[in-house]
Amino acid sequence: MEMHFIFSDKVVLLFDFWKVHSPAGMAVSVLVVLLLAVLYESIKFAKIKLLYQTLVNMPTSTSERPEGTDQDSSSSESPLVSRPRFRWVLSHFGQSLMHVAQVVIGYFIMLAVMSYNTWIFLGVVLGAALGYYLSYPLLSID
């Protein structure tokens, strides 16, 4: 088996049914891999943004409770305590789902690169660069 990058329009990517036999098929495959790399970078920035938004919106101390509430209450599951905790659980669940999607897409991208096709490799590199370029302005934390 060849273990170096080659320029070719014939390759099998990820699955047996994704066989490329023509320049047009290679162009479509490079575009698909490029979009996967853009999606990978976008998910990475979305996870960061979600964590930041969650942390900003969480109460930082018990002094932020509204007046008139009993702070020495024996009930540890008051609505004021459980609502931020519930938001944190939802945010953590969302981040976990995004992490799983990012890992799966990352492995697909890695396996595509391991086809040792130069065009596919360039599609991944350009997709990662384009994804970073498009996603980074969305990270602007105000």
Give your account of this protein's structure.
The protein has helices at 23-57, 79-113, 118-135; strands spanning 11-12, 19-20. The chain has 142 residues and is mainly α. The protein has a two-stranded antiparallel ribbon. The longest helix has 35 residues, at 23-57. The relative contact order is 0.22. The model has no long low-confidence stretch (mean pLDDT 80).
Q: Whole-Å distance between the termini?
A: 52 Å
The structure class reads: mainly alpha
Question: Rounded to an integer, what's the Rg over CA atoms?
Answer: 23 Å
In total, how many beta strands? 2
Unreliable stretches: none
Hey, roughly how much beta strand do the residues contain?
under 5%
Helicity, in percent?
55-70%
Summarize the helix and strand pattern as letters: EEHHH
Descriptive tags:
142 residues, mainly alpha, 3 helices, 2 strands, 62% helix
Topology:
Blueprint: E1 11-12, E2 19-20, H1 23-57, H2 79-113, H3 118-135
Short recap of the structure:
The chain is mostly helical and 142 residues long. It is 62% helix and 3% strand. It is built from 3 helices and 2 strands, in the order E-E-H-H-H.
